[in-house]
Design brief:
homodimer, globular, 10 helices, alpha/beta, 2 domains, Rossmann fold, 286 residues, three-stranded parallel beta sheet, six-stranded parallel beta sheet
């Protein structure tokens, strides 16, 4: 059986470090605060929001919620983002996406002050991920993948990594971050031919397609490390990842490792969000 | 023997289209002009400059040369870039890199007006290449690779592409442009393990490392398409690519194809530069 890479030890370690940093910031007169901008009330968003509120509370990070009615329109959203930008007491902002239909998501992403863009939604942050130049935060889920690998001492340098999915939220940024760490990275997607064979060539596989249990035994081989970033609901209404977990588990063997869903990468993303708030708060102080 | 993919037919086709566009622009009262900013007098830069001057002349594009002494310093360079930015008669600018020692290249790249950044040196342009959002030009050499593939009817969709080299001038941007066209892209570099084996898995190989004749028979297989972007000088003082051309030629077979050095991708880069000047000029007019 492969190692099951739970998020909890990583979350605990990040929490310990964050508590120290919050204490230091408060000693220096800075009260770190996170803004959440939510348009409408999608169950996914509400679920993540509850987790974020709890996590922020447990760390002593203030949370400011900007709730916008689903039919309020772009102007109301832009006004909320302007408020976030103007409020020097808010150091970081998470805006739930995708936005409901009719909203200009790109305009909203670009409107957020890049210094407060702690989830890497704007071009400035993404340019930083791509070029290594300038300032900006990586998308939290992409950063959470690296926290998992580092936390579990999985070496990245020189390893073959296959990333399945090319979104700007996870696939493309995590590919660039792993490249920066000297992995040999292959970006795969819905048009990739012979995907199972490409996946089997990898030392590390990152799944980020949002396709429930879509990757089975033929996609894995013994000894691989699998990071499953998908959060899906299966036919029985249960949370599941992109991998067919049982099938993968059987193939990966004792030298392999896999993150479960839930209790894998997902919760680490929230920890990274808090870490980024503190990074932003420390930068403000400088 | 593989097909030898010469730059000339692509250059000729781009020239014909560019001549039409210049005529149309001039009819509308716009005189397209390219600025070249050169610090010092590196032979490589002078060689490219001569080609660019000839090419611009042949198209009726004006050329404005900003020559800066090697020891003039950052302020002199920034002043030249400010002049380029302020001059509405200049629509595009090429700045030779790397800059001599002591210059802050990043600051210079960021100082250039993104609308005039026709070689994709600034973060705004690179963000566009990475995200597909916003405005901006891709680096000309990366764009030249796609012109070659398209011009020779090499299909990209679903193909496995290996890019060797991860610079921001060519490796990373061309990888993103090929991904955008639905290739499955692997980014390789000096830390890649078993590089020859990884290269042999590809349908299309892009070589962009600047290592003279470094990739031999073991790196290729029958039927591959090889784009050799390297421009190097071999031990005998002759221009050569990153591939060991004769060795590759022998392996690729009649279904394979390779770009020679010189007379391959290099000249197409200059054509793309002119194309981008015209794109920029047409945008100004709008």
């Amino acid at each position: 059986m492969p190692r099951i890479l739970l998020g909890k030890p990583i979350i605990d370690a990040l929490k310990a470090r964050s508590l120290e940093r919050v204490a230091l910031l408060k000693n220096n007169g800075v009260d770190p605060a996170l803004a959440i901008v939510r348009v409408g009330a999608r169950p996914d968003d509400l679920s993540y929001e509850r987790t974020a509120i709890k996590r922020a509370e447990s760390l002593g990070i203030a949370l400011r919620l900007f709730e916008i009615e689903e039919d309020a329109g772009q102007d109301a959203l832009m006004k909320a983002i302007d408020e976030v930008n103007a409020d020097s007491g808010i150091q970081g902002c998470l805006m739930f996406r995708p936005l409901p239909k009719g909203y200009d998501e790109e305009a909203a992403c670009e409107a957020l002050d890049p210094r407060k863009d702690i989830d890497g939604i704007g071009r400035a942050a993404l340019a930083r991920v791509f070029t290594g130049r300038g300032e900006g935060f990586a998308p939290c889920t992409a950063a959470a993948c690296l926290e998992m690998l580092d936390g579990y001492d999985v070496s990245i340098e020189g390893k073959r990594v296959v990333v399945v999915g090319r979104s700007l939220v996870i696939g493309r940024p995590v590919a660039m971050m792993l490249l920066e760490r000297n992995a040999t990275v292959t970006l795969c997607h819905s048009r990739t031919a012979n995907l199972p064979s490409v996946m089997r060539d990898a030392d590390i596989v990152v799944l980020a397609t949002g396709r429930a249990k879509a990757y089975g035994a033929d996609c894995f081989r013994e000894g691989q490390v699998v990071l499953d970033v998908g959060i899906n609901v299966d036919a029985d209404g249960n949370l599941c990842g992109d991998a067919d977990f049982e099938a993968a588990e059987a193939v990966l063997g004792e030298h392999g490792a896999i993150t479960p869903v839930p209790r894998g990468v997902g919760g680490v993303t929230t920890s990274v969000l808090m870490k980024h708030v503190l990074d932003a708060a420390e930068r403000c102080r400088q």
